[in-house]
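In this section we walk through a basic example: taking a raw amino acid sequence and producing a predicted 3D structure, encoded as discrete structure tokens. The instruction is simple. Fold the sequence below.
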Amino acid sequence: MKTISAVLVLFIHVLTAQIPKTIAYQGIVTDANGTAKSDGSYTFTFRLFDVASGGTALWTESNKLIAVEGGLFNTALGDQTSFPPTITFDQPYWLDIQVDGEQLSDRVALLSVPYSIRAVRADTTLIVISPEEAPYGSLIKAQFLKVINPSGRAADFTTEGGGSDALSVYNNGTGNAAQFTQGQPNASSPAVNIVNNGVGEALYLVTNENTNSDPVIYAMTYGTGYAGYFDGDIYTTGSYQNSDIRWKHKIKPLGDPLNIVLSLRGVQFEWNRDVYPERNFNTGKQYGFIAQEVEKLLPEMVRDDRDGFKAVDYQKMTAFLVEAIKEQQAQFEELKAAVSALQAQSALAFKESN
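The resulting token sequence is shown next.
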């Protein structure tokens, strides 16, 4: 076989939505005189380098049997041997071709179209992934990333190796590290849904800087719903509620707190787990109030959720308990003073009678 002197390279398209990523490649095989090779099947070997000559092959696809007709051949680079992650298509590359063991005189520089593979790894541009997900195992590095899906899940972050984060969000500036918005005003689905089927935490948030006075979680709602909703127990080493006098006005003492407390009925109960298994209620004995009973006495301490079920603000109950104890203590002091007065009168009468 004579030395092949020229190959016409036409990069048609790049398939990036599936693995492996492939580059459509077309060329013409000729001899040294420019005569097209005879029709038939030839064995091709393709190698990719980051230098025009010398160096070490970064990728090799060997012994590809390709049909040649009129000197023209078509193939897909990477359909037999995938491009490794180290080939990121963010720098110049050269293609080395052998046909039936004979080497081309020069390597062929890749043209611009294959560099669209880099689009899934862009450093500074806005990336929009819609509606297909990024290639499995691909690196998405961007200054701006927008994931859109017209229906269903827009993004799914999964770690299968264990010991690593499925998603880590860092912010070195002054803005939010992450913001989640439910864009539909009448939608009932949450903006964030975190599910953990393992034994660890579904959500674990930490502020590493011990001088940071900002909250680890800041939740605010402008609607009538809750800023936070938890089906299950909450464990904490401390809890505070806003109570600064500068935020309050029309301050008045509680009216008749003792009678209100005496009218409340504390009960022992068990959650109706059979009827409401989706609520994941605790088992065993529970203690508390009945919301409908509290609502008759203190309607401001009871509210309905979106499904119409009632909840009690137990924390606000503390104010009534404190004032009820103080009122009861005042009554006790009056009785104590009255008893002391009676005892003094009795002692004086006994003394005078003797």
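Looking at the output, two observations stand out. The domain at 254-354 is CATH 1.10.10 (Arc Repressor Mutant, subunit A). The chain has a mean pLDDT of 79. In the next section we compare this with other chains.
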